[in-house]
UniProtKB/TrEMBL annotation:
InterPro entries in UniProt: ZIP
UniProt organism field: Diplocloster modestus
Protein name listed in UniProt: ZIP family metal transporter
Pfam family name, one: Zip
UniProt topology in membrane: Multi-pass membrane protein
Length: 263
């Protein structure tokens, strides 16, 4: 039960940061600067890459080896399943990314605003899983303070990159003609899947401990799919991509420092 409360707190923080980012719609009415968008997208990508390695894949390998398994097998298997899950969701759910003209997935009569929210909501799922699993892992190791510190570092890192993510959904919605209040609500709700999936994965992991290496690497594969499929390409649109590249490096550096310093 304690791990569920920790996961609720961690993912609640990431949800709060999404909401704070969405609140930027009350202060900025005009289209945001393209270079700032690239930096934010790159930063989010860097955070997720570092989190996938330090907070998910390495612990997955260590957990597998501690259980007597070949370390790389569940890590690789879960990683592939995470990628397959996001690919499946991308193909089954209609969604629209900001600055894209045509929606992805099956054809739908849903409004552009709904499709925009779905795009961000879909990609928030692995982030919630990652934070929840980190707290579940700490609980399985006898409430190890160092592991709880590492889980909190992950929640902080994901929360930091969720701030611009919330703005990245509310501001385009406002530009689509949605009222300021509704744009804020939709932007905030795009992050609600993080507490939901974070708590669900804690409950699953707590009941079936041998699944932990698979679940950790599953979240890593899903997060890296988002990075490679969406964040990095969008961060490098245009002729000059240095700002996007520097954003990736900064995000990776911040998440690495958080994980090592607090873990």
């Amino acid at each position: 039960m304690q791990s569920v409360l920790w996961a609720a707190g961690g993912t609640g923080f990431t949800f709060l940061m999404t909401s704070l980012g969405a609140a930027m719609v009350f202060f900025f009415r005009k289209k945001s600067n393209v270079n700032i968008q690239r930096v934010f997208l790159g930063f989010a990508a860097g955070v997720m890459i570092a989190a996938s390695v330090w907070s998910l894949l390495i612990p997955a390998i260590e957990e597998a080896e501690a259980s007597g398994m070949i370390g790389w097998m569940p890590a690789a298997g879960g990683f592939i399943l995470g990628i397959a899950f996001l690919m499946l969701m991308d193909n089954l759910l209609p969604h629209l990314h900001p600055d894209s003209a045509a929606p992805e997935g099956p054809s739908s009569t849903w409004k552009r605003t709904t499709l925009l929210v779905l795009a961000v909501t879909l990609h928030n799922i692995p982030e919630g899983m990652a934070v929840g699993l980190s707290f579940a892992l700490a609980a399985q190791h006898g409430n190890d303070p160092a592991m709880y510190a590492a889980a909190m570092a992950l929640a902080i890192g994901i929360g930091i990159q969720n701030f611009p993510e919330g703005a990245a959904i509310s501001l385009p919605l406002r530009q689509e003609g949605v009222s300021t209040g509704r744009a804020f609500v939709y932007g905030s709700l795009s992050g609600i899947v993080e507490p939901i999936f974070g708590i669900l994965t804690v409950l699953i992991a707590g009941g079936i401990q041998p699944l932990m290496p698979w679940l950790l690497s599953f979240a890593a594969g899903a997060m890296l799919y988002v990075v490679v499929e969406e964040l990095i390409p969008e961060a490098h649109l245009g002729e000059h991509s240095h700002v996007g590249t520097l954003g990736v490096m900064a995000g990776f550096l911040v998440m690495m420092i958080l994980d090592v310093a607090l873990g």
